[in-house]
Amino acid sequence: MDTDRIELPHATLELQPEGFVVSRQHKDVPQTDELADLLMRETRRLAGQRAAVLVLLNGQPISKGARQRIATADELAAVAMVVSSTVGTMLVNFFMRMNKPKYPFKVFSDEGRARQWLVTEGMGARRVDTEAS
């Protein structure tokens, strides 16, 4: 088993050299409450003592309970969420305002910019921010 990669029913988790975890959501698999719990447990297991930071890609529908679980997760230091459309950005911003995370959170349309933000600002920042990049 690859210790830097975990396959879940709804996502592939990969630990990056910079110390954050990339979560690539599988298409057509909605995020349920149970899958959010699994995601948090496995993120912590994969990241070990490192900051358990997620980049969520290919965002699929997320249940209310899953949004609440992710927004209040002690396992997360920061989240950069990558979405593929302006509508997706608007939806993420709307839902995250309803479930305001207790860690730095920012929305991107470009994976490279999301990674850069995590390394330079996200893992040490203390604000919730959005950007349509």
* Major β-sheet strand ordering: 1-2-3-4-5-6
Give the N-terminus to C-terminus distance in angstroms. 36 Å
Overall shape: it is: globular
CATH level-3 fold name: Rossmann fold
In short:
Helix content is 36%, strand content 19%. With 133 residues, it is α/β, with parallel strands linked by helices.
Describe the protein's architecture and organization.
The protein has four helices and six strands, in the order βββαβαβαβα. It is an alpha/beta fold and 133 residues long. It has a single domain, classed as Rossmann fold. The chain has a six-stranded mixed beta sheet with strand order 1-2-3-4-5-6, with helices on both faces. Helix 1 (33-47) links the parallel strand 3 and strand 4. Helix 1 packs parallel to helix 2.
